[in-house]
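Handout, page 2. Input:
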Amino acid sequence: KERSLSDACRLGRSQGASESNPTGASASTAFGSARAAGSLRGSFALRGSFSRAAHGTHETTTIVAPEGLKLPPETPLLGSSRLAANAMRQASTRVRGDSESDSSTIGTMNTVKTAMTLKEIEAEYLEKARTTFYNDAVTFAEGTIPQSIVIATVIGIVCGVVAYTYYYVLDYFLELVWKRMPEKLVVDRWPESCHWLWIPLVTFALSACCGMSIYYLGEPGDLAYTIQCIHSKGYKSTHHILPMIAASQFSILAGASLGPEAPLVAICAATAGFLSRRIFKQTNRNVVRKHTFMGMSGALSAFFGVPLGGSLFALEVASRFGIEYFEHLVESIFAGEVCVAVFRTLAGLPLQQIWKISPQRMAETQPYMILLGAAIGLLGAGVAFLWANFHWRLMDVFRVLGLLDDENAYAVPRVLLGACGVASIGVLVPQTMFWGEWEVGTIATLSPASDLPHVWPTAGLTGFEMDSATGCLIVGFAKLAAISLTVAGGYRGGFIFPFFAAGAAFGRALCFAFPDLSPVIATLCFAAGINVAITRTALATSLILCFLSGEQFALPVVLAASIVSLFATSYVPFIKSQLARSDIDYSLYYRENRPGPRVQDSMRPGAMSVDA
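Output:
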């Protein structure tokens, strides 16, 4: 910014001199004449009025936005006021110094006599803040705090009800398909040696249902597509809701390694966008985008049971490095709080620890553990890098087979091919079945397979157990393979908890190699390293892992693992739609009388079609 401001000052002086005195005898002004300012388009961003003495006349120049920012014409930019004011003062001082040293041009030179002081600039910038909560509440103006509170509350309540309905249906059918039905249809009817056949039977049947739902109901989208919609138009269309509900429910019930988090994000994002545009009649794209983020934050907060972590995840996952939609942070967290309260109340679920990795919680964290966590996070990033390359090659295989068509004409054979891998791995290593939210506790504590909460029979075909370093590595790599086959097969769901499960397995393998290593540190840091490398959510991942494990003192260590993983994989993004936001300059310098892009505008040029 400092370089661009300095260049703007120099450019303004040279253009002012050339236009007012083509011979160059009249040295310079701070920003030239009004005509020069028009050509400048304000290479830096602040509205300022300047008087100059030119043959006894005075002109006022308004510095406006550069054309490169693609903002509405003549948009005055109001941000970075301190930096801009200092640059203008320095330019004015230099011009005066030059004029005083050149006696031959005294009297004919255009010099800056006055400039807006910093106090005047700040007064103009804060003029729009001279209103009250009552006035904004009465007018219900777009983007104001009263409006945000009302809309966030409505979105939180609605998305809480939506999330509860989704959760209730999923929980009911999980119990029906994987507990009640085998007890009635298989136990005492099939030979015990054939009980394992229930796994491929259910997986193939429900996978076929998943493929048919995509074929007949249409494309449900995925997390990458949701992020693309956030960037390009600020909302996700509601016609994706029904296909996503059907496809994701069948995917999860089939035992695939994807969870409900991404479907809930997509459903609640579309719901929130609908409420914003249709019910509250919002048209400003960034305001609608804020409400969409509220829905996403509510979904993740409700599902994880971690309001701050879930809300941060929704904002972090849209970008490759940190939170770029920072202006929506507080309202999104508020919507997440409302949503988690509604969802957990309806479901009768408390906000609590769900994994007990160690018999005793960590009472303290030694400083050296932060370096240890960073090292484990780097290992997790390496594993994630290897997995991403494997997955891209597996997608190439599906592409060569002609199964990745845009019209989903081959949705059924595609998902059945994926089911071959998912069922085969699940039969041999039952710990890899399902999304892993509750399986993480079993894996991280090396509990017997009989403690697995969903799959039946828990012994699978071979009675595999995690009782050695080799067994832990098998579970870790098998889980990663199952995730890749699930995604490539066209199932719909989220891979946050599946990566947590894989990371927990690798972390336990480390504990066999280093017996003095804390299982809490090993499992949580490895899980963070893998997940952050793929999703780019360093802050949210750390909070979620530490909250769900009840290990608050592990947070500095897990955060170190997350940040190192984020740095290590910064140039190898997995989710291609995680882009730098295109309206960053406009969001910083918004003015009510110059509204931003509207939601009916076309998609941003160059917006890509994302293939997971």
